């Protein structure tokens, strides 16, 4: 039994089968099959219930999977810990970014950090807030930028900025010339929202429920710039963060909603009790100084 066998086993579970694991790892399926058999022979017990049509772990398999994940995390973190002990100003930081955040401020801080630590590299992944939290919990990213508040028993966080959420309308919309609009006035409108991975979606639905209705959602998307095209085609209305509204073209009008819930806060988030590399800790300290 070695690290490679554990990687193969975890991949089979995560990818729901040997065929998918083989494609994911770019390794021949017989190699993976043999590794699984070697593990079962070493442990002297089956890891998968082969009487089922779909992939199902045995009780032993479930325990072994959990322990493999822990061992692989420790194994992958070992170079980071060694670098940290040596005090090297190098490293790699994986950051999950909200798809509806103000990128300008973040990029400015990142640029300043790069000037100070030019040997640090980055992986930037754009997602919804819920997916970012999941990625943090699963140790797939080091830092996330997402909606606050978060569960303080799981995450540390610092505030990045706050802003209003604005109603966005096509200039020809019948509400375009009305000065004050609240959520109750949108009861009969078609909504263009983000998908369920975004906390912004939940916030808008909650505000509508508080106004006595469920929004009629005609489209759910994952990229804010698609909303621009849908609004331009008169498909409905949308509610977007103020910084995103500022990026839209002049075909639209935006209104501040008379609703205290139409404001949100974004922050920098990282997992409690997770080992952070030297570079990641320096990045967090750098962010705290700039915010």
UniProtKB/TrEMBL annotation:
PROSITE patterns attached to this UniProt entry: HTH_LYSR
Pfam families referenced in this protein's UniProt entry, alphabetically: HTH_1, LysR_substrate
Coiled coil: none
Superkingdom of the source species: Bacteria
GO CC list: cytosol
SUPFAM superfamilies the UniProt entry points to: Periplasmic binding protein-like II (SSF53850), Winged helix' DNA-binding domain (SSF46785)
MF (Gene Ontology): DNA binding; DNA-binding transcription factor activity
Keyword set, alphabetical order: DNA-binding, Transcription, Transcription regulation
Residues annotated as domain HTH lysR-type: 1-58
InterPro entries referenced in this protein's UniProt entry, alphabetically: HTH-type_LysR_regulators, LysR_HTH_N, LysR_subst-bd, WH-like_DNA-bd_sf, WH_DNA-bd_sf
Family classification: Belongs to the LysR transcriptional regulatory family.
Record protein name field: Transcriptional regulator
Gene, per the UniProt record: cynR_2
């Amino acid at each position: 039994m070695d690290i490679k066998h554990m990687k193969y086993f975890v991949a089979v579970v995560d990818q729901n089968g040997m065929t998918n694991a083989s494609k994911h790892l770019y390794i021949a399926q017989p190699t993976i099959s043999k590794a699984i058999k070697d593990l079962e022979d070493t442990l002297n017990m089956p890891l998968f219930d082969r009487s089922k049509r779909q992939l199902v772990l045995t009780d032993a398999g479930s325990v072994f999977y959990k322990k493999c994940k822990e061992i692989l995390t420790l194994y992958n973190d070992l170079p980071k810990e060694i670098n940290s002990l040596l005090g090297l100003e190098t490293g790699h930081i994986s950051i999950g970014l909200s798809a509806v955040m103000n990128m300008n401020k973040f990029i400015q801080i990142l640029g300043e950090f790069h000037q100070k630590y030019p040997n640090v590299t980055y992986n930037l992944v754009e997602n919804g807030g819920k997916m970012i939290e999941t990625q943090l919990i699963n140790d797939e990213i080091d830092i996330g930028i997402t909606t606050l508040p978060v569960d303080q028993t799981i995450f540390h966080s610092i505030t990045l900025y706050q802003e209003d959420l604005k109603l966005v309308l096509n200039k020809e919309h019948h509400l375009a010339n009305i000065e004050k609009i609240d959520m109750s006035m949108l009861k009969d409108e078609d909504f263009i929202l983000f998908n369920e991975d975004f906390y912004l979606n939940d916030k808008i639905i909650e505000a509508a429920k508080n106004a006595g209705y469920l929004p009629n959602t005609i489209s759910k998307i994952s990229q804010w710039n698609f909303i621009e095209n849908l609004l331009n085609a008169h498909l409905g209305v949308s509610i977007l963060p103020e910084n995103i509204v500022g990026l839209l073209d002049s075909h639209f009008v935006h209104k501040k909603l008379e609703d205290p819930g139409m404001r949100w806060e974004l922050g920098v988030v990282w997992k409690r009790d997770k080992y952070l590399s030297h570079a990641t800790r320096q990045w967090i300290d750098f962010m705290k100084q700039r915010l």
